[in-house]
Amino acid sequence: MKAAFINSYGQFDQIKIGDIDRPEIDDHDVLIKMKAASVNPIDWKMVHGDLKALIKLKFPLVLGSDGAGVIEEVGAGVTEFNVGDEVFFRCDKANIGTFAEYFAIPANLIAKKPTNMSFEEAASIPLVGLTTYQALKEKAGMTEGSRVLIHAGAGGVGSFAIQFAKAFGAHVATTASKKRFVLLAELGADEIIDYQSQHIENELNGFDIVFNTLGDSVQEPSYKTLKKGGVLVNVLGIPEPLVVAQYTSNILVKLISHINQWRKEGLAAKYNAKYKHLLMYADGKQLREIADLIEAGKIRAIIDSTFPLAKVKEAFERSATGRAQGKIIIKISD
């Protein structure tokens, strides 16, 4: 089968398009004929080797972390899905490879594709959807009426997160350049801050939650927007020590994680706030809940651009600019 893969870490020119063996399934797996996948920063960071200290992967490494397609085979122990079902999913971090014509995955990690979305639209959802769900609901405890600041509202995660938060009755502020304001208003943002000319700490206060998708550059200003006891959830940088311990036994990596957590929590305490880090995990049940919101018309896909499988390198280059509005899609088959 055709796939996009690398044989070693490096730059985007390491990406190859070629033939590899079609995967086999176990009793609790399904084999998916891939229709589309999406590009996420974690995908091109894998090419650079940015996560190699935490996640050990084997070469050749097929790229791609989420997608959508049609079930071609089901394992003997699978009862919830059937051949021909249209599904979408986020794969486990230790078993990536959706930029391929076929992908094998445990059935508990998939969900039926929203009926009102194309495969390309559905492929744009899993990683950003699960990241948002786990950050806002599990880590931050968002409820109806919560005041939430979502950084980079026009990005893949941000554009989904605004809609998700509004679906649960939150008041949403977000940041973007002025040329994105119309889109963000359409998505439901209550307040939009122009990060090029405004400072969030001067414009916002009394917020319950900050969803930080940009990292350290906005960390301290974000704390100034929170009320006492507010929560900042970060999805970039070094995970929390308990999470790191699940992936590696390397003492140095663990030590770095502990020091980082101590520093992050210390900064949060300075502002009477709480710091939490999220390393998102795959979950089919949560995806089913997200699919329900989509089918109810509360969330729509925002697509920046679409590339064929042969143009993964170009798609990564587009993503790495940081200028994409919504998600970048890899179309794999009709």
UniProtKB/TrEMBL annotation:
Family annotation (Gene3D superfamilies): Medium-chain alcohol dehydrogenases, catalytic domain (3.90.180.10), NAD(P)-binding Rossmann-like Domain (3.40.50.720)
Superkingdom as given in the UniProt entry: Bacteria
Location of the Enoyl reductase (ER) domain: 10-330
GO molecular-function term, one example from the UniProt record: oxidoreductase activity
PANTHER family: ALCOHOL DEHYDROGENASE RELATED (PTHR11695), RETICULON-4-INTERACTING PROTEIN 1, MITOCHONDRIAL (PTHR11695:SF294)
Name of the featured protein: NADPH:quinone reductase
A Pfam family the protein falls into: ADH_N
Annotated organism of origin: SAR86 cluster bacterium
